Amino acid sequence: MKRLTLMRHGDARWKDRGLPDLERPLSRRGTAAAEAMARRLRELELVPDLMVVSPARRTRQTAEIVARELSIPARRVLQEEKLYLAAADDLRQVVQSTGPRIAHLLLIAHNPGLSELMQQLVPKHGGPGLATAAVCSIAFEAASWQGIGSDTVSNVQRQSPPGRLFGLFG
């Protein structure tokens, strides 16, 4: 069995227009939402074996919050250049290249690619895409990462930060 958890970074600050997109930090609201979702992941016992994170500052900050809350050591948090503003197919390639020893992978990345990947993997759950800091955790009856797909989904849990659309699917 494999579990893939997709998390969109927390809300980013837009005030400093001169700051490159890659360097935009989390807003206060984004930090609070990331903290709330990290606590929720702990409550649901959704602690990944590995976190793979976009190089954008807002995703790295989100990952730091999650890693701290879930007591994930730094060596289990990898930055992957390919995740920055990646399309769904590129995200899927990163997932499918994950080593066989990893049972639970957490990706922290960006929309629209992250929501598109979620919709490809769990089309029957439909609904809106991932809001900032939202999480979709998908369990697959698959022995390898290459075997994950909509036909091998066994469980889906979807969570949004407080004040956002909330959903939990079994």
User: How many DSSP E strands?
Assistant: 6
Q: What helical percentage do the residues reach?
A: 25-40%
Ranges where pLDDT stays below 50 over 5 or more residues in a row are: 165-170
Overall shape: it is globular
What is the tally of helical segments? Answer: 4
Q: Could you tell me how far the N terminus lies from the C terminus, measured between alpha carbons in angstroms?
A: 16 Å
Q: Round the mean pLDDT to the nearest integer and report it.
A: 92
Strand order, largest beta sheet: 3-2-4-1-5-6
- Structural class category: alpha/beta
The ordered string of helix (H) and strand (E) elements is EHEHEHEHEE
How does the major sheet shape up? 6 strands, mixed
Strand content: 15-25%
Output the radius of gyration. 15 Å
Give me some keywords for this one.
disordered C terminus, globular, single chain, alpha/beta, 19% strand, 6 strands, 28% helix, six-stranded mixed sheet, 170 residues
Summarize the structure.
The protein has 170 residues and is of the alpha/beta class. Helix content is 28%, strand content 19%.
Helices and strands, with pairings:
Blueprint: E1 2-8, H1 28-43, E2 50-53, H2 57-70, E3 77-79, H3 88-96, E4 104-109, H4 113-121, E5 135-140, E6 153-159
Parallel strand pairs: 1-4, 2-3, 2-4
Antiparallel strand pairs: 1-5, 5-6
Please give a structural write-up.
- The protein has 170 residues and is α/β, with parallel strands linked by helices.
- It has helices at residues 28-43, 57-70, 88-96, 113-121; strands spanning 2-8, 50-53, 77-79, 104-109, 135-140, 153-159.
- It has a six-stranded mixed β-sheet with strand order 3-2-4-1-5-6, with helices on both faces.
- Helix 1 runs parallel beside helix 2 and helix 3 crosses helix 4 (113-121).
- The longest helix has 16 residues, at 28-43.
- The protein is globular, with a radius of gyration of 15 Å.
- 38% of the residues are buried.
